[in-house]
Write a structure and sequence with these properties.
Helix content is about 80%, strand content about 0%. The chain is mainly alpha-helical. The longest helix is centred in the middle third of the chain and has 40 residues. It is elongated, with a radius of gyration of 22 Å.
């Protein structure tokens, strides 16, 4: 279906989607790579525990960034539904629901991280455990956040694939960008399922490559929606009528 008009609700939703998409990207990068990652030492539970206890505020700010990202994801899916529902209401709803499931799974990660922080606390009921055991359990909780993301990734990929297809059908954004989105998002879905079945798959294909094309697509679309808005496609027969008149 090719749309030949865009209403005010869609225009407003495009701006909201652009802001939500860009803000979500910033929150994830800042929370994960700037705040959280420096505290987590691979294969060293004791050093990780010491870092977290020494920088609890930094750790909690990272978790707040992740919660804010989850809220932004819900805002984004609502805006995308408003934009894309006129193209195909059923597919737009499916894309919104897939993204909602991802957002819910994403929000489990902060819960695991808070559980890790509780294990490293000084509550009296924790005294029955040795410190190294508590540190190991806390590290397991943090590792669970990694699993939360990769269980949610197929849903994220499916949401992006559906939206990319609707972008292609609507012609609201450039066709080449839409095609890149379909391919990159479908690739993410494939990698996510293969990785869940074969955990060593990331030794063949680096796990950053799973979702990087899809993330790039969503980032570029966010910029496009915020600064360019929705393109209006005029049917060819209307153009012909205008020329003849």
């Amino acid at each position: 279906m090719t749309t030949d008009k865009v209403d005010n609700a869609q225009r407003t939703a495009a701006k909201v989607a652009g802001v939500a998409g860009l803000l979500g990207f910033v929150l994830v990068v800042f929370g994960n790579y700037v705040l959280l990652e420096p505290l987590v030492i691979a294969r060293n539970a004791a050093d990780t525990a010491r870092n977290i206890l020494a920088h609890q505020t930094q750790f909690r700010v990272a978790l707040t960034c992740f919660i804010a990202y989850g809220i932004g994801a819900i805002v984004l899916l609502t805006a995308l539904y408003i934009i894309l529902a006129p193209v195909n209401r059923g597919l737009a709803l499916a894309g919104a629901l897939f993204r909602l499931v991802f957002a819910m799974l994403w929000l489990i990660a902060p819960l695991n991280s808070l559980a890790a922080l509780r294990l490293l606390g000084d509550a009296s009921y924790l005294k029955v455990f040795e410190p190294d055991r508590l540190q190991a359990l806390a590290r397991v909780q943090l590792a669970g956040s990694f699993d939360d993301y990769y269980v949610g990734l197929p849903f994220f990929g499916l949401a992006a694939t559906v939206c990319a297809w609707l972008w292609l059908k609507s012609k609201y954004i450039p066709r080449g960008l839409s095609i890149f989105g379909v391919v990159g998002s479908a690739w993410c879905v494939f990698c996510a399922f293969v990785y869940l079945i074969f955990p060593t798959f990331n030794k063949i294909v680096n796990d950053y490559i799973f979702d990087s094309p899809m993330a790039l697509f969503e980032l570029v679309v966010s910029f496009w929606l915020l600064f360019k808005g929705l393109r209006i496609s005029t049917p060819s027969h209307q153009n012909s009528t205008k020329r003849s008149s």
